[in-house]
Amino acid sequence: MKDMHQRTELSSLGEFGLIDRITSAVELVNPSSLQGIGDDAAVIDPQGLMQVVTTDMLVEGVHFDLSYVPLKHLGYKSMIVNFSDVYAMNAEPKQVTVAIAISNRFSLEAVDELYAGMLAACGVYGVDLVGGDTTSSTSGLVISVTAIGVARKEDLVYRHGAKENDLLVVSGDLGGAYMGLQVLEREKAVFKQDPNVQPDLAGFDYILERQLKPEARKDIIAMFQELKLRPTAMIDVSDGLASEAMHIARRSELGVKIYDEKIPIDPVTYRTARDFNLDPTTCALNGGEDYELLFTIAQSDFDKVKGSPHFSVVGHMTDQASGYQLVDKQGGQHELKAQGWDALLKK
Amino acid sequence: MKDMHQRTELSSLGEFGLIDRITSAVELVNPSSLQGIGDDAAVIDPQGLMQVVTTDMLVEGVHFDLSYVPLKHLGYKSMIVNFSDVYAMNAEPKQVTVAIAISNRFSLEAVDELYAGMLAACGVYGVDLVGGDTTSSTSGLVISVTAIGVARKEDLVYRHGAKENDLLVVSGDLGGAYMGLQVLEREKAVFKQDPNVQPDLAGFDYILERQLKPEARKDIIAMFQELKLRPTAMIDVSDGLASEAMHIARRSELGVKIYDEKIPIDPVTYRTARDFNLDPTTCALNGGEDYELLFTIAQSDFDKVKGSPHFSVVGHMTDQASGYQLVDKQGGQHELKAQGWDALLKK
Prior knowledge:
The structure is a homodimer. By secondary structure, the first copy, chain A, is an alpha+beta fold. The first copy, chain A, folds into two domains: 146 residues, CATH 3.30.1330.10; 180 residues, PurM-like C-terminal domain (Phosphoribosyl-aminoimidazole Synthetase, Chain A, domain 2). Helices cover 35% and strands 23% of the residues of chain A. The first copy, chain A, has eleven helices and 13 strands.
């Protein structure tokens, strides 16, 4: 049986030993992955398709707190945030490279956990880990991931393709990841005051999973194929609905109108927000990290999403002069603002 | 005139402001760069070629010391180390993504310098900056770069293609970057003892440039084309000749023999090593960061490199059982060891 308390120093392996260990756990599944880890560069055969490339960096103390984020979940999430960007182009992720800077306070077992999470995500999404870099860090853990995907040129969806009167649609529900974080932060504060108190996480499973183990909407891209639905513009929800809707509007040189009551919010998210004296709509608009897809479609495509439990029409695109508007339940219009988390926390 | 002492806080721009500023300085030159910064992912048209991908991470306090490395040089070098990996595949870099984590002790002017260096390198090497991520850091500066290049499938050169009796050839000269670093470290130590002493860097221009502003051997790849020379295996010299030669041997399931007196060492490198009581050969074997290309060729191709000032034949590949050998001027054989910098510094 594996001794969970075993601690092997990273220095006992050295950089090359660590790379060999990571490499031995990797199996390439995509025929397009011609050369994986082990040379100066990975080699990919694009097989006649366009390549999309996205990079995200996660920094300890900024993007994650290891006092409540298990390393395996962190590894998984570090992949998901990048896969989500690829899906947001209506493309499919196929390869990934990972660079990490890690200090010697981490053991080999900790690094194994981190990569186990990364490789689990690669397995679920059919992506090959083909390269990377491991280096030491003087302080915290830094993870930089680059994901590479493919699409036919005519299938690619950008942020800038929306047209006036297009419907604004979002997959799944919003605000859960943000409320999950609030619960974790609260329990951490309680634990700090009295380490004997067990964290009270019962009933919060859904939003904790949204925060700790998010998924990317591979299934939505598949649905687009089945429905023969090509969004006119698309973005993934990493910074919150308001910010993302404004990105689509700005890039498409349009305005946007979002209807407060149309925003999909899960009951657990709603109830928890109320418990925290937060407005659930504000959490959904500005919370971020939901990794849902926000996209626009022609009104003529409305029948394809109507009644689907996966999609919510939350608004529509307007002319540029109308600006960015939020319509409340009473029909009052407010200027839409991308506040982000900072603003939320200051309230 | 630009006020060199101006300091603008990064927080005054915010993340999106910073991205806009970086983007405005970027111009795409390659027809294969269909979409640059500004969407969920960059889009590349492979135009029927294979794609190669490489990632390197540079960490403050581990890979660079800002007390003597100008940010512009650091930006330049962070590109070069990645381009070098692409050339080592006999491929040409075309796109790059950059993720940086930066603390608020850096000003906007400092970030401008860093990106100016990156974009200068992109300009010289014909590479497009197509994407990235900027995030805050709780301590030092971390730079993660992913370079993407192209090659025809039949032109790609791996580490594993060497054959027994192939000649081992290196471009340029070795050990300079390492000796440049020694000079910088010495002057830093002097400065720490007495800040009124001006650093004495006269006469060290060549090795300081090797350390602070290295170049990648784009010209060598072009020479291969002209000479109709296809190396059987190739790697770039980032960790030192010994380590890289052993990588080629190990991947090709061969042994390797290097002749001490054949290793190309610049007179400034040689003289400086002697001044520091270091063996110049050891510096060339283990110093690293020279970003020269180390490659193997069939003996029948010897005429193509013979007499060239750009190439030195430093040894040859042997059968696997013969292991990794260094032959000294007296003909004595010693086991070749990849000591790396740590071992050098402990001596």
